[in-house]
Structure prediction request, 416 residues.
Amino acid sequence: MRESKDLEFKETITNSFLKTVSAFANYRDGKIIFGISDNGDIKGISNPVQACLDIENKINDSISPIPSYSLSIDENTQTITLNVKEGFFKPYFYKSKAYQRNDSATIEVDRIELNRLILEGQNMNFEDIPSKAQDLSFSVLEQKLKEILNIKEFSLDVLKTLELYRDSTGYNNAAQLLADNNNFPGIDSVRFGDNINILLDRETFSNESILSQYDNILKKFRTYYEYEEIKGSLRKKTELIPEEAFREAIANALVHRTWDINTHINVAMYNDKIEISSPGGLPKGVSEEVYKNGGISIPRNPIIASIFFQLHLIERFGTGIRRINEAYRENEKKPIYTIFNDMIQITLPVLQEQNNLSDDENSVFSALKNSTLSTSDISKATQFSKSKVLSIIKKLVEQGYIEKKGSGRGTKYTAL
Prediction:
């Protein structure tokens, strides 16, 4: 056996085990085995019956509130196993401090994590907390409710039904997130060129309804990853990345992110992929395997999730990841899901190459998308020499990828 997130060894009985009792009671069931060294050698405990009484007294006198636990003695090894249950009345303190497990170590929780424990102990989410701002307007939400749900009259009763307003406390944080203006972090969108040193476009969507943020980042996506091919009288829309997958990834980020930390959702757009990074790791009780195979069936922000569902921005809870995977079913390249303790990143690869150009030619072509630039501008954007830019431009013009505008010093180029 080896120590882990839910297993700790103690060779002797000292007060240090009480920090781990606090951690297990705050987060997940765990056990502490007394009489085993850190490297797993069995040492045993002399007079284990008396030792159990000592352990019990230490817990009852030092942990507040008292957690649910049990003790058992292994007669063969003379070891004692303390099983601690995750509690309902969080946080569980030891000497006025709450603890959590970090792999096989026990550490004190920070202020943000302590606030989350307090809310959980009150059976609340961050979105349930009364909003500091109570002078809120909801024109964006009103418009979408009328368009999609055919609501005739938008009133306070509608907001109560959506669980955004309570007579006793007023608007909550969920209401502020959906209001026309809010003070929460938003979505930071960056469009890169051939590498991260080439920044072509950056825009941050914040201080607006998360519904507006969703719409605005979708417009940005369409600018760079969708185009129309005209063949005769027919127009054909081509998606370099499936829009449905991007929609699901953004909605997933807004619905499941942690809103109590001042960090934007980051959307990094590259020629060959998009990376969506959302603050907050996996919700409690959801494993990485479950997330990657099906998604999150219990949203971190249930009020927001319910409204997104009613507005048809997400399907049934827990289907988002499956829908992203389905959008890539026929494609060789698949989405990549990277899970960190404090962040989830979804990488969406392009479905197909845009053209048969070389990397250098694609860099110039990408710089000219949605832009009209001079050779000097292109040189700065791509970090290529002016002579190299002129050579590439000549080829791109000949092949019909870009067109020349103006003449002399006023000559500029744009993508077709």
User: Anything to note?
Assistant: The chain has a mean pLDDT of 92.
